[in-house]
Specification:
This protein is an alpha+beta fold. It has helices spanning about 15-25, 30-40, 95-110, 160-165, 170-175, 190-195, 240-250, 270-275, 295-305, 350-355, 360-365, 375-385, and strands spanning about 5-10, 45-50, 55-70, 75-85, 115, 130, 135-140, 155-160, 205-210, 215-225, 230-240, 260-265, 280-290, 290-295, 310-315, 325-330, 335, 345, 370. The protein has three domains: about 5-110, Aminopeptidase, CATH 3.40.630; about 135-285, Gcn5-related N-acetyltransferase (GNAT) (Aminopeptidase), CATH 3.40.630.30; about 290-385, SCP2 sterol-binding domain (Nonspecific Lipid-transfer Protein, Chain A). Helix content is about 25%, strand content about 30%. A hairpin with a 5-residue loop joins β3 and β4 (about 75-85). The protein is globular. Bound molecules: acetyl coenzyme *A (ACO). Acetyl coenzyme *A binds near residues 81, 94, 116, 119 and 122. This is GNAT family N-acetyltransferase.
Amino acid sequence: MTGHEVRPLAESEFREAHDLFRRALLWRPSKDEEWERNSGRYEPGRVLGAFVDGALAGTAMATTNVVTVPGGRRLPVGAVTGVGVRADRTRRGVLTSLMREQLEDARRRGEAVAMLHASEAVIYERYGYGVVSRSRTVELDRRRAALREDAPVGGRVRVLDQDEAAPILPAIYQRCAQDRPGQIGRDDAWWAGQRSWLGDGVLIAVHTGGDGLDDGFALYEATKADDVNALQVYDLKSANATAAVQLWRFLLGVDLVDRVVGHGRPLDEPLEWWLADRRQCRVTSVDDDLWLRLVDVLEALRARTFGPADPVVIEVRDEFLPHNDGGYRVGPDGVDRCSDEPQLVLDVAALAALYLGDQKASGLVAAGRIEARDPAAVAAADRLFAAVETPWCGTNF
Ligand SMILES: CC(=O)SCCNC(=O)CCNC(=O)[C@H](O)C(C)(C)COP(=O)(O)OP(=O)(O)OC[C@H]1O[C@@H](n2cnc3c(N)ncnc32)[C@H](O)[C@@H]1OP(=O)(O)O
């Protein structure tokens, strides 16, 4: 598609891009205070604009971050966000041009992967992104969801308002284990931006462990609909299981509350195991969490560790970034380009689904997303790509 120009925006153009993005998401333009809280996320050089007839028609940006991959390495990554095209300029290739320029920029920066959260599931696969982690929404009937007597106990919980919590949350987040695949960083600009999304009613429960260190927090808000008082838990992070249980114990103990709803929780959070009646944890949805794009397939594969299994030769197809096209030998001792007959053939978005261990190769073969030319390689690929921990991002950006 021609007829539009894509270039990095000047700082003086960032707010226009921010408001274009907000309008594309059907929100009103930002108020001054909201813009001030978000402006730090706009990194010079990483905010792209697409112009049609000389006017800004679309935008996409990325913030510099890191993401954990299996084995514990933290890879430099662009966290893609702020994507929007004016409603009167959609479906003429504006986003496609922005994505092309953004991925080329990531390559120039030496970032082997890019990541995002998607507003809709049908947008990003064409650019090579795949779902690498999922999360669940859980609902607990507060009066019936008693914890087991043998659930961990210890420490204490105090409740802070947003101003009180702001200076201490970043350090607690740092203390929370970040070796789980899909974990990302939260810098000062992220925390400032997050404040602008939170309503006035949000409170923060902070857990302090027996050693006197704050080791977990829960951001929550009370809501009332159809005569049901609920606590909506938007963000709950903990450095250890005791802190997590104590935060849930606190939330389930708040008077007058009928229901506690946990949003974006990891699939392997052992809530059912902490409850006396496991059915009191109702999973109301399982959603895609992080999407990831292998920008440089060889470097991205080399960055993670693989499980014990015979090496497998895969052929990767990547229409959007053809430099990735070709064969790779993947094994526990390393990854190399190769020209041997491929045993498995897949596109780069399907490879992303394997990359953090969210999906098994055998599942993607059954789904028709991997062509198994050598059926014996499927079980080996299952073992190679398996991750010890369930991937989860749990940070919106
Ligand atoms: C990481 C984030 O920030 S997520 C937020 C994403 N932004 C939004 O959801 C805001 C609202 N939506 C928009 O602003 C726009 O519709 C965008 C950004 C999603 C797409 O922008 P466009 O310029 O219309 O995309 P573009 O024209 O390049 O589309 C390329 C292809 O994707 C398809 N496509 C793009 N968006 C969608 C969609 N939402 N649903 C279905 N198909 C889509 C197009 O039909 C086109 O297909 P084709 O190549 O077969 O013709």
